[in-house]
Amino acid sequence: MDGDEVLHPAGAGDDWFESWWFAFYVPERKLTVYIYPWFRPNLGLAGGGVIAWDGRGIEPWSILHHDYAWSLRFAGAESLMDGDAIVTPQGVRIDCLAPSERYRIRYDKPGLAFDVMFEATGAASRVNALTAEADIFKGHIDQPGRYRGWVRVGEERIAVDCHCVRDRSWGPRRDDLADMHIGYYHATASARDAFLLVTHAGEDADASSLISGYLIRDGVQLPLVEGGARIIRNADLSPARCMIEAVDREGRRLEAEGRGLSQAALHVQPGMFNWSSLAEWRFGGVIAHGELQDTWHPDKLRAFIRRQRG
To answer: Which residues make Cβ contacts (< 8 Å) with residue 25, sequence separation at least 6?
Structure first.
């Protein structure tokens, strides 16, 4: 397998971090399944796991499924490999059937199980060291695709056929970056229409500017070069809606509006809290499902909440 399908050579620090992320939806159930195994190889630690929510509950103890760790032991890159598959201590198996094109992802626990295939519908958008100065990551991949297979919720087996994205991250991931506030917004209607926008917010917590992203229109995928997003929040300060305006390398404009359908409050690492919402997006004359991810350092979010609530 190529180097991005396995753990990369780790840097020297304890904060070196690697992750795989896949997610799929059953929109009519407002169901999101979020697959996020991550590793700190220089510490011998594995974390993350599988989370699912469907609008019945927001917190880890009230959502549909929360099988998530911060401190499992693992014995390095070779211990994860089974042929061309990654088999994680978190209970996730990722078979790489064709690098950057096809993956089979499996998981089986009493409350939740799934067997889905991810098939890419666009190119892998790779960012190298774009945010490394902020010690967030050194390398990152985003890629749109189609998920097909099944998910079992309790005793009920449900068909899966949706579009979403996958991502990969590696590099330093410090827990003390108290100014971190990132937006991760995307929707995929088909191989012809999709977008993804990664942003960073400044003093105005509801407005953020472009870090990276892409626009797919009429099947042509190009990087975004400027733009931003604005959030409108619910009473609990989670994202309710999001408006995006951006421009790609050839001057094509993206105007998108997303509406949250169901959400979860996820403390994914000690230095990272994520409001993650399944969303319905309207853009370029199409309607598609995707996400509103509003990601904060917990200290920054705490200060924001206290300001808003007086």
So the answer is: 31, 32, 33, 162, 164, 278, 289
What total of structural domains would you count in the chain?
A: 1
Position 258 in a domain = yes
Mean pLDDT score of the chain: 94
pTM above 0.85, yes or no: yes
- What is residue 265's DSSP assignment? E
Domain that holds residue 235: 18-309
pLDDT of 130 higher than 50? no
Check pLDDT > 50 for residue 5. Answer: yes
94 lies in some domain: yes
Reduced to 3 states (helix: H, G, I; strand: E, B; else coil), residue 171 is strand
Q: Which of these, 114, 94, 184, 187, lies nearest to 156 by C-alpha position?
A: 114
Report yes or no on 151 lying in a domain: yes
* Element at 67 (helix H, strand E): strand 65-73
**Residue 127: what pLDDT?**
75
Distance between CA atoms of residues 27 and 30, nearest Å: 5
3-state secondary structure of 270: coil
Determine the average pLDDT of the residues in 179-201.
96
User: Residue 2 falls within a domain, yes or no?
Assistant: no
